[in-house]
Amino acid sequence: MHISDLYAVFQAHPEVTTDSRRITEDCLFFALKGDLFDGNQFASAALQQGAAYAIVDDPGLAGLPRHILVPNVLTTLQDLARHHRRQFDIPFIGITGSNGKTTTKELVAGVLAMRYRVHFTQGNLNNHIGVPLTLLSMPADTEMAVIEMGANHQGEIDALSRIAEPDFGLITNIGKAHLEGFGGIEGVKKGKSELYRFLAERQGVAFINSDEPFLEELAQALDRKFFYGRKPNANYPIALLKDQPTLQVSFAVEDGNEQHAQSQLIGAYNFGNIATAIAVGLYFGVSASDIKSAIERYTPENMRSQVVRKGGNTIILDAYNANPSSTRQALLTFGAMEAQNKIAILGDMLELGEAAREEHQAIAELAQELHLSQIILVGAHYASIDLPTEALHFPHAEALRKHLLERAFSSTHFLIKGSRGIKLETIVEALKEA
């Protein structure tokens, strides 16, 4: 079936799913295959549950009613998403980077939504399947699209760019994330900057944080670029006024005055995320007062710099993901907080390859230097290092949870930071007030 013919089917049945457990009436089921499953085996069941058609690539299903046979379901899903994207003559903004992608995406979308009808990536649908699903869920009246793109090895950002075809884009930063897949920091630089190279090829526009290392150098091939940040010569100068207890920023407005915004975000590491949203908003004509409102109303959640209060205790829950760069920033912010009792609970940072022991050792030593009340380390990687003398170690989150259930805390600040696979969010309910 030609993609234009399949698109006609999609227009009649615009709900798309790849999960046979989430079938909605009259949807299209794309029978993806993975290492441990074959969606083709669930196609008939999906149709019985109410799907209009099943898109399959098992030749044995050819000719069955409401089964649409294609050479490869995944590439067909991606091709259909690209075809749908091309029906829109609107700005598409691609966002990638080592840290802060999701927070930046949400801030940017929130600012732009003050003036436009914005469609943006939900949750973490930012990979080779998530990006097509994001595009295919875009309503006809969308005026701006903000697409998050994640990667853990080289070539992925280029591939996602050729599906979403952004004409604007930004890299939040270059850090020590997914070192195993990228092959070190130079590999991260090369992989993330694939977005810049795509934009250069298409005469697109890049927004560049002038405070971040590597970005200006990586963007040399771009003719159309705008800088923002703390440097006075930036196209959009933005200042950090204070970082305690939450970030307050200022930015210039057309009449030469300044607009201040008091965010609900903690940590100087979030300044770049806020600054990005301000710069993008200014570029697209969102008023300074609307930018201020959007920044101030944004509340972090989903375990990303999320503040949880339990009685007199305060929990900084940042357990959605972790790498050496983000963990270092979180620790430094935590160390600077004004609190009498501070306990850092740090889980393994995954996908670091040969650098794992060295990076975990460095984080443990930094935590020790901050003179915290307690350091608690969780996971096999932290077990392999020379532990600080005052640190406790647990093999997994469940062991720590049981330990915490026997204790109570008073007026204590906790930092909970670890990779998603460590599941540190499961210990929050065990933290009791004395």
Compile the SSE list and pairings:
Blueprint: H1 3-12, E1 16-17, E2 28-30, H2 43-48, E3 53-56, E4 67-69, H3 73-85, E5 92-96, H4 101-112, E6 118-120, H5 130-136, E7 144-148, H6 156-164, E8 168-171, H7 179-182, H8 185-192, H9 194-201, E9 205-209, H10 215-218, E10 224-229, E11 236-242, E12 248-252, E13 258-262, H11 271-283, H12 288-297, E14 306-310, E15 313-318, H13 324-336, E16 341-347, H14 356-369, E17 374-378, H15 380-383, E18 391-394, H16 397-405, E19 412-417
Parallel strand pairs: 1-2, 2-3, 3-4, 5-7, 5-8, 6-7, 8-9, 9-10, 10-11, 15-19, 16-17, 16-19, 17-18
Antiparallel strand pairs: 11-12, 12-13, 14-15
Helix pairs in contact: 1-3, 3-5, 4-11, 4-12, 6-9, 11-12, 13-14
Please summarize what this structure is.
The protein is of the alpha/beta class and 434 residues long. 33% of the residues lie in helices and 21% in strands. The strands form three sheets. It has a nine-stranded mixed β-sheet with strand order 6-7-5-8-9-10-11-12-13, sandwiched between helices.
Report on this structure.
The chain has helices at 3-12, 43-48, 73-85, 101-112, 130-136, 156-164, 179-182, 185-192, 194-201, 215-218, 271-283, 288-297, 324-336, 356-369, 380-383, 397-405; strands spanning 16-17, 28-30, 53-56, 67-69, 92-96, 118-120, 144-148, 168-171, 205-209, 224-229, 236-242, 248-252, 258-262, 306-310, 313-318, 341-347, 374-378, 391-394, 412-417. The protein has 434 residues and is α/β, with parallel strands linked by helices. The model has no long low-confidence stretch (mean pLDDT 96). The longest helix has 14 residues, at 356-369.
